[in-house]
Amino acid sequence: GYDFPAVLQWFAERVDLIILLFDAHKLEISDEFSEVIRALKGNEDKIRVVLNKADMVETQQLMRVYGALMWSLGKVFNTPEVLRVFIGSFWSQPLLIADNRRLFDLEEQDLFQDIQNLPRNAALRKLNDLVKRARLVRVHAHIISRLKKEMPSVFGKDNKKKQLIAKLPLLFARIQLEHHIPPGDFPDCARMQELLLVHDFARFPGLKPRMLEALDELLTTDIAALMPLLRQEELEAPEGGGVQGGAFDGTRRGPFSGGAEEEEEEEGEEEEEWVVTKDKAKYDEIFYGLAPLGGKLSGRRARGWMVSSNLPSSVLGRIWQLSDVDRDGMLDAEEFALAGHLIGAKLEG
């Protein structure tokens, strides 16, 4: 066997994002899961929580589940910041309860936008880690030099070492007051007491003022010079448009773009004849029942019928991309039949 929490902690320190999955219809935090979460301590800024399968419960019940989840997470994560929880149904199957479709679409975009922004966020996190490590080095230098200074030159070294380890919290407090160091820069006292047991304090190096000056220069000047570069990269990033590329290529098209306005209907005939399934007559009946104008259905009217399939908007957006062959933002009878065929094929698996 191996130390599973230690392995998780090792990975948590090195990854850029940690996603915790919960099912809306089966919400619980087991003892094993609690142990996993405790192993992630110190990496709360990387954690995102996904409340999946939210289409399996009604809106009122979903609100209760969300509140219960936040209460449970508050007991496990002892941090002042509230964890970001994304609500949705993160697969391509039909929504069982489609009342919150709009919410699911927005949450899906937010989650994957967060993932797409990982390169910029990771650079900022690494810079923050550098600052944190530099401050920790400065504190360790003061602690080690003070321990070396307190040790006797000849007799009573073992007893003095035990006394210094036992009084380490007082030593931390004195260093904090003398050098005006924030309490958050200090290492875990109990952990350091444990590690100091195997070291010879007399062999610790002394304090080197010139190296401390260089470290202060890094914190006050060099790090500050890097911040505008990150800010410039953020300003140059493209705005809007939602998540792009990968599985989202083509999913935000037509009436499923998240903010599309109804296009003006223009008369026109599609000369090329499309081959559709034997159910063409059935789709024609639906098509003309939706009252097309000029032989075409607007995106808004077609969307209303397509959404009734309960398929996720990302899937319907891809179907719209394949069906709107002439890219005019509307569907004629042949394009509508193709869309109906693709929806039927998706529903049949």
From TrEMBL:
Recorded GO MF terms: ATP binding; calcium ion binding; GTP binding
Topology relative to the membrane: Peripheral membrane protein
Domain EF-hand, chain residue ranges per copy: 311-346
Residue ranges with Acidic residues bias: 260-274
Signal peptide residues on this chain, from the entry's feature table: none
Residue spans of biased composition, Gly residues class: 239-248
GO cellular component terms, semicolon-separated: endosome membrane; plasma membrane
BP-aspect Gene Ontology terms: endocytosis; endosomal transport
Region span, Disordered: 236-275
Protein name: EHD2 protein
Gene name of the encoded protein: Ehd2
